[in-house]
Write a structure and sequence with these properties.
The structure is a single chain. The protein is α+β, with helices and mostly antiparallel strands. It has one domain: 4-Layer Sandwich (Deoxyribonuclease I, Chain A). It is built from three helices and five strands, in the order αβαβαβββ. The longest helix has 36 residues. It is flat and about 65 Å long.
């Protein structure tokens, strides 16, 4: 643990430990996203995913869901940055509503309420007819 006045060695050790933990978390979330994407691809049913990926639209997990045929409801009908995380680091959109090709989304909104370190998101959605 970093100690006040511990010098560069303590800071370096703490930094290395933090980077290792971040790397482990990225690897774990990547595996989870790959598993989720495989299930989505095999589903005989229309799929809607709503949740906290802890991954931005530039991240691996998000792109795994796109490769599985999902559409981001925010990209389809949201406005602005859509930031959902309101913690101590710069705001990111890490919570997502995604859907399969059988759906169309409209009216995506990020709600202003701060009930946790994430903002809630909502979207209207319906099955496409005649495609």
């Amino acid at each position: 643990m970093w100690k006040k006045g511990g010098g560069a060695d303590s800071i370096s050790t703490a930094g290395t430990r933090i980077l290792g933990r971040l790397k482990d978390a990225f690897i774990r979330r990547g595996r989870e996203a790959t598993t989720l994407a495989a299930h989505i691809k095999q589903s005989p049913w229309p799929v809607v995913y709503c949740g906290d990926l802890n991954d931005s639209p530039m991240g691996y997990g998000y792109h795994e869901l796109l490769r599985a045929g999902m559409t981001d409801a925010f990209s389809e009908s949201g406005e602005g940055l859509g930031h959902t995380y309101i913690g101590n680091v710069p705001s990111f959109r890490i919570d997502h509503i995604m859907h399969g090709p059988q759906f169309k989304a409209w009216g995506f909104r990020t709600l202003p309420d701060e009930l946790s370190d994430h903002r809630a998101i909502i979207s209207s959605m319906g099955l496409k007819v005649g495609d």
